[in-house]
């Protein structure tokens, strides 16, 4: 029996996909509220090793779920879900949280630099790996100011310690194949004071995807941490509108 089987059929399974420089623990408060509202929830492990391979792993998890799914991605996780959901008829909605929504051939790195205002380049701390690849972290010295400005400083410090790196290859890999947002209803929660993905870039991607959009003014890149109530309301709106 899957996680979805144990819950009422009217409630879709909410699958949460974290982005780079984070892990699933950042969704704790969102998850707590969703569970309290009766939604089955799964937090997908995102390896952050390569866009195509990360999407394959998330797709495998989606294939194991019975019934409707609302698939949620933050930041780089948005690029992952855009590929992972393609061809899965159970995915009824895509929800992007301060996320990349690439078209085929575009990378997260490319989209972050499409409009001025991103501090991601100056924030990265590379760790060389064998074979010439690098792991990329947000330097803890600027994690709060550049990544999580509206999160309390003590909480941001913990998130900086727990962050998981993405490879340079993952952030630079272009999206391949058809992107799911062309055929699946999608929603985009834009962080209005984002210093990682500029709000102008988020709005561009949301408009292109014909997304239902809300802007959280003053929110940092970690909008789902600083604004869990608003985030949950947005996810549940998608669930109600797409799964009846």
TrEMBL record:
Domain AB hydrolase-1: 14-233
UniProt protein name: Alpha/beta hydrolase
Statement: the UniProt record of this protein carries the keyword Hydrolase: yes
GO molecular function, one term: hydrolase activity
SUPFAM superfamilies (alphabetical): alpha/beta-Hydrolases
Alphabetized Pfam families for the sequence: Abhydrolase_6
Keywords: Hydrolase
Organism: Paractinoplanes pyxinae
Domain of life: Bacteria
């Amino acid at each position: 029996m899957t996680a979805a089987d144990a819950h009422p059929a009217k409630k879709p399974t909410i699958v949460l996909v974290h982005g780079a420089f984070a892990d699933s623990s950042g969704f704790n408060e969102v998850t707590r509220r969703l569970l309290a509202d009766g939604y089955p929830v799964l937090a997908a492990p995102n390896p952050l090793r390569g866009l195509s391979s990360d999407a394959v792993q998330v797709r495998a998890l989606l294939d194991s779920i019975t019934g409707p799914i609302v698939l949620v991605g933050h930041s780089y996780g948005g690029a992952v879900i855009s590929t992972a959901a393609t061809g899965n008829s159970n995915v009824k909605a895509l929800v992007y949280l301060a996320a990349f929504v690439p078209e085929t051939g575009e990378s997260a790195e490319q989209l972050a630099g499409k409009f001025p205002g991103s501090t991601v380049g100056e924030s990265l701390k590379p760790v060389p790996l064998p074979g010439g690849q690098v792991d990329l972290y947000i330097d803890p010295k600027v994690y709060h100011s550049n990544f999580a400005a509206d999160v309390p400083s003590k909480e941001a410090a913990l998130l900086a310690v727990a962050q998981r790196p993405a490879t340079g290859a993952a952030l630079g890999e272009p999206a391949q194949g058809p992107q799911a947002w062309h055929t699946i209803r999608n929603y985009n929660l834009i962080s209005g004071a984002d210093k990682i993905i500029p709000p102008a870039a988020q709005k561009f991607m949301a408009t292109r995807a014909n997304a239902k959009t809300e802007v959280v003014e003053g929110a940092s890149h970690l909008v789902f941490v600083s604004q869990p109530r608003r985030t949950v309301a947005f996810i549940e709106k998608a669930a109600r509108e797409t799964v009846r």
